[in-house]
Amino acid sequence: MTPPDLDILGIGNAIVDVLAPTPDAFLAERGLPKGGMSLISTEQAEALYAAMPAGVESSGGSAANTCAVAAALGARVGFLGKVAPDALGRVFAHDIRAAGVHFPTAPLEGGAPTARCLILVTPDGQRTMNTFLGACVSFGEADVDEAEVARAGIVYLEGYLFDPPAAQAAFRKAARAARAAGRQVAITLSDPFCVGRHRDAFLDFVRRDADILFANEAEVTALYGTEDFEEAAARAGQDVAIAALTRSARGSVILAGTTRVTVPAAPAQVVDTTGAGDAYAAGFLAAHARGLGLEQAGRWGSIAAAEVIGHFGARPQADLKEMVA
Amino acid sequence: MTPPDLDILGIGNAIVDVLAPTPDAFLAERGLPKGGMSLISTEQAEALYAAMPAGVESSGGSAANTCAVAAALGARVGFLGKVAPDALGRVFAHDIRAAGVHFPTAPLEGGAPTARCLILVTPDGQRTMNTFLGACVSFGEADVDEAEVARAGIVYLEGYLFDPPAAQAAFRKAARAARAAGRQVAITLSDPFCVGRHRDAFLDFVRRDADILFANEAEVTALYGTEDFEEAAARAGQDVAIAALTRSARGSVILAGTTRVTVPAAPAQVVDTTGAGDAYAAGFLAAHARGLGLEQAGRWGSIAAAEVIGHFGARPQADLKEMVA
User: Fold this and answer.
1) DSSP 3-state helix, strand, coil percentages of chain B (rounded to 5)?
2) Could you tell me if B74 and B287 are in contact, meaning their C-beta atoms sit under 8 angstroms apart?
């Protein structure tokens, strides 16, 4: 079998974030579920943008953030996702390439504009996300190049991609291509509401196609329809080869067959939790791709997550390679 | 005379900033003058953007920053400047309105895209700016609504507007309209290179039209063709009613007839100097519009400048009203 020449190929929504600080009342007045991700229409996006304070734009997207962080940790990374050929699409493409990530997906011609996520950061550092999917809705099977998938040791899929209609088929195609090439398939559940919207499809995918599962407590309990984390964790451990389950300040639990590793969170001053889970997955996968073992993988994940929650924005600002060394 | 219903009307380039950290070598390799502002063509902008690291986008523009900061200090503020009806133009318009600034200028239809400034921030916190003027080149006399000028107690003009060809005529129209309505005219020199490009036009404007002059040491010495700050300051004091001259960590000197006030800089941890001069002018004008006197005006300027250099980006993140109280 040809060894992979990429460590990780991420597939996800290609999104530009618009971050702005807001008081809690701003969320309450609009019924926005704090800490969650809501899908919004063009009209809702325009109304919310008009009401929110001045923002700062930066490239985002869950799997794309993971790819940028993993590249910062020295992994060889690619990303597939759909932008439009507009100013924000050029920002997204520039930033992910500048992070050292291979990004071959062709922009969508003549369709919706580049996706954006209006992120409201409350004084406690929690982020509430409102996503207008735009061009991402058009991401489909045709965008999954099997040769690109076969190049990567791990294909990493973002749960949010269960929302755009054509993307589930793209997921399955990517998983088949990875399997055929002898590669691993990782998936992150992304968001408990997203799990709720597509629970059967997620369960089916996790059981049939996934080798590695990333989820936080709310997501894994939503997936297995239980309120008991330990029960959900045990079931995840039976469904996949590796389950890496994050618990915010309590660190993470990693299950692999009969092995159970508990990893503490790295110390952090919480400024903005945007991208914490994405960065954890990046650290985990970058270490895993190097064969560093579960404990080190969890440690790299904790360190990467602590770095990104210490500042505004989801991509790293400090030298992560030095931090894990 | 009708009292003004705006305190300040700013006129300047409407620009979206793209900020990225770079090492000093990145500037040296490209011959970019550190700390300065260079005008770049579409092709140069594309080449520089392709080479620079992932960035963070936020609304900028010198006078526009001043307007946003002055509004944050409670002043009633308007702004005139030209964007295109594209994604970055909508970002600019949203952000300045969200800051509480009245922004009536119509976007440019069918012309160049919204201006952007590629800002490279070196580890010492200095910013080196590379501006693609885009739609700003089309800002001209027709965009200066005399009724808007007459509404404001002070019209504030950005020296960078001497670069786009049609804007000098717009400046003169704004100054005439302000004079006719019994209002004050303030101008900032913006940049020593910009002063060098348009020295005679600046000198003529300062002497004939300006009541208040803002400049830093490099700019005021460039204007008067001397290396001696005291000589330049004395000449500025003869040319305008109020000259507010900033000296970085050494604070500012304010000259008004025979009065000379020296104001210390406010303590700051320098992260990114982008917008320091803009914020100083904002604090000064917001206090001046309230009739607080030169010493308080300088103090408000110092506090506003210290706030914006303490973080990435040119617009305030802390509660400035509380800081000056």
Assistant:
1) 45, 20, 35
2) no
For A203-223, how does the pLDDT look when each residue is reduced to its tens digit (9 = 90+)? 999 999 999 999 999 999 999
Q: SS3 for B146?
A: helix
Q: Cβ(A158)–Cβ(A12) under 8 Å?
A: yes
For residue A301, give its domain range: 6-13+61-111+134-324
Per the structure block, which two tokens stand in for B42?
């579409």
Across the interface, whether the CB atoms of A95 and B58 are under 8 A apart is answered: no
Classify A309 as helix, strand or coil. helix
Q: List chain B residues with CB under 8 Å of A21.
A: 317
Could you say which of B55, B68, B86 has the minimum Cβ distance to residue A95?
B55
Is residue B129 included in any domain, yes or no? no
Surface of B (59-98) touching A: CB under 8 A? 59, 68, 86-88, 91, 94-96, 98
Supply the ipTM of this predicted assembly: 0.85
Q: At what angle do helices B229-239 and B199-209 cross, to 10 degrees?
A: 50
Range B247-253 contact pairs with CB under 8 angstroms and sequence separation of 24 or more? B247/B216, B247/B217, B248/B216, B248/B217, B248/B276, B251/B298, B251/B302, B252/B280, B252/B298, B252/B301, B252/B302
Residues 6+ away with beta carbon under 8 Å from B151: B4, B5, B6, B9, B78
Neighbours of B202 (CB within 10 A): 24
pTM, whole model, 2 decimals?
0.90
Domain count, chain B: 1
Q: Has residue B166 been placed in a domain? A: yes
Chain B environment of A98 (Cβ under 8 Å) = 52-55
- Considering the domain boundaries, does residue A19 fall inside one? no
Answer whether residue B84 is part of any domain: yes
- pLDDT one digit per residue (tens) for chain B, 325 residues: 778 899 999 999 999 999 999 999 999 999 998 988 899 999 999 999 999 999 999 999 999 999 999 999 999 999 999 999 999 999 999 999 999 999 999 999 999 999 999 999 999 989 999 999 999 999 999 999 999 999 999 999 999 999 888 888 999 999 999 999 999 999 999 999 899 999 999 999 999 999 999 999 999 999 999 999 999 999 999 999 999 999 999 999 999 999 999 999 999 999 888 899 999 999 999 999 999 999 999 999 999 999 999 988 899 988 999 999 9
